[in-house]
Design a protein that fits this description.
The structure is a single chain. With 270 residues, the protein is an all-alpha fold. Helices cover 77% and strands 0% of the residues. It contains twelve helices and no strands. It is globular and about 60 Å long. The mean pLDDT is 96.
Length: 270
Amino acid sequence: MNQPKQIANIYSSIGQGKVRMKTSKMFVLGILAGAFIAMGGIASTAASVTVTSPSLTKLIAACVFPGGLTMVLLAGSELFTGNCLLVIPLLQRNIKFTELLKNWIIVYLGNLVGSIFVSALCVFSHQASMFDNAIAVSMITTAAGKMTLTWSDAFLKAIGCNFLVCIAVWISFAAEQVVGKITALFFPIMLFVLCGFEHSVANMYYLSSGIFASMNPSYAEAASAVDQSVLTWSNMFIHNLIPVTLGNIVGGSILVGCAYWFIYLKDINE
């Protein structure tokens, strides 16, 4: 097992490769990560949507969703929230701020494309009609709830989320075998879903799927109790993705990346 100081050095080295790969490859890997997280999202909804107990519904969804990050880390892809840890090689002066910023922007856009692709695939293939439109109702209800969060709520929930996501990425580097990596990442991801925290890339899927589902008359009618007027592309960004993205950066870059750099690597530069 790799010790925390070893993990810090490993990620500092890996980070250089992340920011210096070709832009086209970075973008495609971002698309794949967005699709993987979205697949985890739709699977968790399908697994839990017919359960009547709210707490049990949340637990089932939380246990399924980590499959998305498992694919991200093991299949090879680039996820914006995990890449908030690039602050570690930045503080080590192994990469430039412009390289970090380029990676974040390209990967974020790729994540957005992959997430929206999967949400469109699920809605327009009528997969959302499963269980007598229950999945579609969940899509619309979830998206409306997320788009009506206050900025402060979205921001603070996003801090909690990416603290746990980056901890999941961090401890997955402790393991050298596939089973160990999956086990390591499972519990922090389960916790963030169970706590109801906000993940920008997951929300790219949840919000866009709600918008797409509301365009279908039968789905919209099934979710008639929900105020669907809030389901717009502008609200998706202004009322959710912007504050959530900023919160994710704080939770991942500062609370995890900066903290572990300070603990394990800072003295190297002195």
